């Protein structure tokens, strides 16, 4: 044991330490006790595994239980008859252990990972727009399998998907928590698929009415105080922003009577669709303070400011962006909106009474101390 300790000291420090024989004997006794305990515990593991032969894996498990680092240069696989995977090189008085690197083919790993995970995907989410631009390739619709839902969940989901929007559905979306949590992934996926179809055929009045219906339901859903909804904001936010900034093919009038009490679901008016999207975006921004990074809000504001200052931005989008900032309060308007008001197209501003009116309210709001 004395020679072993001296060898270990030379291996670690490169030279023998000036320790007395009494010190080495003290270390030797304690090291002997530790080794005996390790072997006893390793034999216990071997006996529990109904083996009479002690393996390197048994010792490795004992070391792991004691929070001892692994033994480098030692092959601890159960195939004890094989040669060690480590090789040794002598450098002076020290022994260096090394192992040859194996070549990794990333294409094979990617194909294996893709094939193993493909069958386990239940929900496929696609961004409807990247940096505010719609992509032309067809959108893949991922329909969920009703067989994974219980009968009660299927009935409740069918009730929420009813085309006859009434007060009962409104209360369920904005107040229910327990039952709604069980079908929330399928409900949001249903919203996304139908909104995709409505945006693709937005030139038809019927599809714009359906889009207003889905946006209204999402607004009531975002009013729900259930915290589990916050975990789906990363799916809802690109849907809402796409409806907000979408370039509709139909004619966009330069002005609109914002005091019109007629339901947007009946009219399908573009101004009302953008206002509904702005209301949902406001709810997302207020909920995101509890979950998403602060940069999430800044990125949304930056994207809206960019659209606000473009000369090609329609009047309905200008009004909806100003509406969003007005609802968020004077602090947000002072920080993000005021420096860019002069860059808005003045022709569209002065040709719309609605835009002039909301700019006056923002001016009064920002002057409040």
TrEMBL record:
Similarity-based family: Belongs to the TAF6 family.
Molecular functions (GO terms): protein heterodimerization activity; RNA polymerase II general transcription initiation factor activity; transcription coactivator activity
Transcription among keywords: yes
Domain of life, source organism: Eukaryota
Record's GO cellular component terms: SAGA complex; SLIK (SAGA-like) complex; transcription factor TFIID complex
InterPro entries: Histone-fold, TAF6, TAF6_C, TAF6_C_sf
A single GO BP: RNA polymerase II preinitiation complex assembly
Protein name, as recorded: TAF6 C-terminal HEAT repeat domain-containing protein
Subcellular location per the Swiss-Prot or TrEMBL entry: Nucleus
Residue ranges of domain TAF6 C-terminal HEAT repeat in the record: 148-341
Keyword entries, A-Z: Nucleus, Transcription, Transcription regulation
